[in-house]
Amino acid sequence: MPKELWTIGRLLQWTEQYFLDKGASRLDGEVLLSHILGKDRIYLYTHYDEPLNKQELDAYRPLVLERAKGYSVAAIIGKKEFMGLPFIVSKDVLIPRPDTETLVEDILTVFDKDSAPYILDVCTGPGTILYSLLHYLPQAMGLGLDISKEALAVAVKNREQLELTERAKLCYSDLLSALSGDTVYENTFDLIVSNPPYIPSEEILTLEPEVQHEPVIALDGGVDGLDFYRRLLAEAPKYLKTGGYLAVEIGYDQAEAVTDIAKSVGVYSEVMAQKDLGGIVRILRWQKTGDDNGHRN
Ligand code: GLN
């Protein structure tokens, strides 16, 4: 075999070496190469000696460089699986995380498979939470809000590919502001759910490079990380049915502070908390007990 011949095996070995001091792994190289070849990873192992042509090498090289710069593999290849569903992602959205699956799973424990809740997902990003819920609750309908037009464009694509166009609406909105003034949304939702930006501004620069390469607008929760919870918890009761649920993902050390915010609003039940896979309280959920604006339903 001529030394300069780039086989799958040799290319992966080279990538592994190149990634060593760049916080990336051989597995990342394998995923990028499978993406270029349009094959699954097992193919690489069974075709180790297969030579790659110039076109394939030219397509692979820039992806390796982007990974070395700190972009996640998901952002580079534009795909991420979440709750068993294939999501389109991009460099403009928060990449769906396993922690957020804990939130979706928690919500699925309170709604019967045949129920038809009306769901509001605030800061929907690529549609992560809304579409997973709509997929597993086939009678449900929903509305997703986001302040990022780029994220909404990705959410539109996911809505189409997940065949949810009939059941999901999307709207450009700074938190809940697009709903205000439209009485049709008052006391309407059975569930308001959100994974808002919750990283304290100054901590963003201490995060993993992959996270720092995600849009800061999806991460930055203000000085103490709690800005969006203060607004969301205060505004949500207006749109939630009595008995409806509010569920949020929170940062690793925010359970107490966010619970206190909810108490101060005064219309929520005792909090129900769920831990993530690492044993950290990551999900908080309440029911709206009273009604702060005189209506009942
Ligand atoms: N969980 C994400 C992280 O730790 C942040 C997501 C968010 O701000 N909502 O990187």
TrEMBL record:
It comes from the Bacteria. S-adenosyl-L-methionine binds at residues 146, 195. Its EC number is 2.1.1.297. Substrate binds at residues 195-198. Residues 11-78 form the Release factor glutamine methyltransferase N-terminal domain. GO terms for biological process: methylation. The lineage of its organism: Bacteria, Bacillati, Bacillota, Negativicutes, Veillonellales. It comes from Veillonella seminalis ACS-216-V-Col6b. GO terms for molecular function: nucleic acid binding; peptide chain release factor N(5)-glutamine methyltransferase activity. The keyword Cell inner membrane does not apply. PROSITE patterns: N6_MTASE (PS00092). Transmembrane segments: none annotated. This is Release factor glutamine methyltransferase. InterPro entries: DNA_methylase_N6_adenine_CS, HemK-like, Methyltranfer_dom, N5-glutamine_MTase, PrmC_N, RF_methyltr_PrmC, SAM-dependent_MTases_sf.
